[in-house]
Amino acid sequence: MSTSATCPHAHDISGLREPKLSQSVHREECTQCFDNQDGPAGIDVCLVCFNGSCLDSDRHHTRNHVLRSGHSFTLNIKRTPKKKASNRADGEEPPAKMKRLAINEEREEDKYEHTTVFKCWKCDLQGGKEIAIDTKRLTDGVMLSLSSARQSEVKAWEEEITACEHTLCLEQLQSGAIPQEGLAHCASCELTSNLWLCLACGALGCGRAQFGGTGGNGHALAHFNTTQHPVCVKLGTITPEGGADVYCYACNDARIDPELATHLGTFGINVAVQKKTEKSMTELQIEQNLLFDFSLTAEDGSALQPIFGAGATGLSNLGNRHTLFSLPLFQIRYYGKRPCGTSSAYVSPTAAAHWENCTHALPADCLECQMYKLADGLLSGRYSKPHTDHEQAPTDALAHPTPEHSPWQAGLKPAGFKALVGKGHAEFSTMRQQDAEEFFSHLLTVLRRFNHQNIRGVSESEPTETFAFGLEQRLQCQSCHRVRYRIDTMDTLSLGVPAHELADGEADTGAATVGTPDESGPGKKRYRSVSLEQCLNLFLGPSGQEALEYQCEGGCGKVNCRQMQFATFPDVLVLHAKKFQLVNWVPTKLDIPVILPENDELNLDNYLGHGLQSGEVELPDSSNTSAPSQPEVDAEALSQLEAMGFPTVSCRNALISTGNAGAEVAMEWLIMHMEDPDINVPIQTAGSGHGNAPEPPAEQVAMLADMGFTNAQAKKALRETTTHPLPSSSETKKVPPGSSRLPARYRLKAFISHKGPSVHSGHYVAHIRMPRGDAMDVDDAVGDWVLFNDEKVVRADETSVRDLKKLAYMYVFERE
């Protein structure tokens, strides 16, 4: 890179503008790889579109951006850590002791120094020509802007809490001072903490017991059930600035009260003199998440050994995407097949070709670019090395780590990837913890949609199809014995897991308690272990047949029998173990041990369906009356149910089955039908033409008529919500994905475990069976399993693998 005080293109600089408040400034990391501002070359930020790109000699991302965009000026940014003072000066006061849980923003300028250089690429297309001119306006604009990474993480520790009709229209029925702090207690018990004040009448009630040890008997909720006063405030969380935990029981959610100070004044509470004495709900959630960590020690107490290299790169806060890129089809599609002995400088030919021809203005907005970036980051091994703040760790850093040298990696932080995948989704666009199975399904949907729209005609096979299979449903009328078949395309198989609680002192060899002391102990519920074969039989075997109330088209009865089986098998089978129930309106995880077959091998031959058999007679074809369609559901209620951790299809089925009566009614239905084999099979309804729909039962018409509807209205509503569990066979002739060849043998490739009380708190980690020759080849004597715990990547301990495998949340099997 050359340096000059003058530039013949200086007259073009006056046209450059600092970034707008709404613009993303990619100044921390390259948008096409994970090289960042901490590297020796730094990051070049385009001063027109504010794309960030690296200066690596093998990838040429900055030069490629200049050639593609025609943008010629960049600001090179390098960041170096400030040296830490080893000892305090004599007489210097020690830092103040933290007296309460708080989230203090650590200012970047206190930790790092930044060096910026203005460059012109018209003068030097190879490396950019350094220009020594006054660009303070542009430099300050870039450096003081909210970086793209920070924009993506701004919601990491907070929820979007809004007001509701109950807080906006709050009517206070009584007034008068309440007892002062220290003297107040619940009106129904003697608890003096976790107290909630009803803002309508001033009643004090204790809250529900919270995970983490905060006690409560639920008397505030009981008060709401009795009086229907919905809005309450947690006393110990009121701050002088007017902040507090406000909860609406009618909405069953945290809310904002814009007039909180006025409403509290009704009961003699002066907000200005209040002092926060208890943890807020957000702080409790954060504390709970931070408490959970999977053991990184072996059975003998020794530390598990970190591993580094290709395929062993850590991901900070998004650790379960490792599983996807451990599969050959995803590796080949997004990284290619790197020749043996190739250095980490290898660049995927398909990635390089895409970078040259990408039609998106910014790589950060292109899902294909971000998939190539993630694959390169995880599989190249370039970023898989011990973390150091100042310099490369010495060879003995792993054995004797110091504050400057960590035995772990820094970990990649794909915040931009997650933001792009979650864009526009009510749940996944936030930084709150997501359910792993739901995010997996959403990611596949996003990838398929993108590939269908942007990469038509590409010769590479669609990698998401490695999970797809056909699920056969067989419906038989128990009166006329005629049948109907339907095949649905699925990506995961959700299996109900029977919950049989063990009595005190009852032994179960498979029910090993795994977890922190907070999760185990005398109050910990223990469940009888079940085999994976039992779970499969409940869904796919003869015992999984379901008596279904359905009007036979032949007019001979209403009770039918439905059975599920595989129509085809996938190359990679993802099993989702449904092990949770609703406790205090929170989906609570049940640690039910699931015992896998010997050697983690699975044979599914007995679960293959065979379609219409000789001698079977099909049910009459009702498709000429109306085409099946997806019924409409209440979008708000659907969003509330999804936020509780239930799969979208289950939520839709619940709302349809309960007549869109609201989230609460649908949730009760979900709890009662969680073990139904078709809980995740979309309900179809008749379309707009219902002239030939069967007459609804008289008792159902009478029930609706008792609610005030006319007979005509009741009949019309019942006709339009008549469920059709299976369309006619003529509608299902499309060849399903997957293969029906036998034998269908699988071996466990990975499993995802979750530690925490609910699917929306705690922590996920992944165990992956790594082939020898990857990061595992440093010692042929070690086992195959690797634990990916965010940025921590270690050889897995045999005992922990055995125990955590039983309590896994998702299992990934590869076909042999």
Which ranges are low-confidence, i.e. pLDDT below 50, for 5 or more consecutive residues?
94-105, 154-159, 390-405, 511-523, 624-628, 686-694, 722-732, 775-783
Number of helices: 20
- Mean pLDDT rating: 76
Largest sheet: 8 strands, mixed
Number of domains: 4
Secondary-structure content class: alpha+beta
Give the overall form.
Answer: globular
Instruction: Provide the gyration radius in Å.
Output: 30 Å
Query: Considering DSSP H and I runs of 4 or more, what fraction of the residues is helical?
Result: 10-25%
| DSSP strand content | 15-25%
Compute the separation of the termini in Å.
53 Å
Q: What is the count of β-strands?
A: 27
Write the layout of secondary structure elements.
Elements lengths: L2 E2 L38 E4 L5 E2 L7 H9 L3 E9 L26 H4 E9 L8 E3 L4 H8 L4 H6 L11 H4 L26 E4 L5 E3 L12 H9 L3 E4 L11 E3 L4 E3 L4 H6 L15 H11 L36 H7 L14 H9 L9 H13 L35 H8 L13 H19 L14 E9 L5 E8 L1 E5 L33 E2 H9 L5 E4 L9 E8 L5 E7 L1 E4 L2 E4 L4 E2 L5 E3 L31 H9 L4 H10 L5 H11 L24 H9 L4 H10 L24 E11 L7 E7 L15 E5 L2 E4 L2 H9 L3 E6 L1
Parallel strand pairs: 1-6, 14-18, 15-21
Antiparallel strand pairs: 2-3, 2-4, 4-5, 5-6, 7-8, 7-9, 9-10, 10-11, 12-13, 12-17, 16-17, 18-27, 19-20, 22-23, 23-24, 23-27, 24-25, 25-26
Helix pairs in contact: 11-12, 15-16, 15-17, 16-17, 18-19
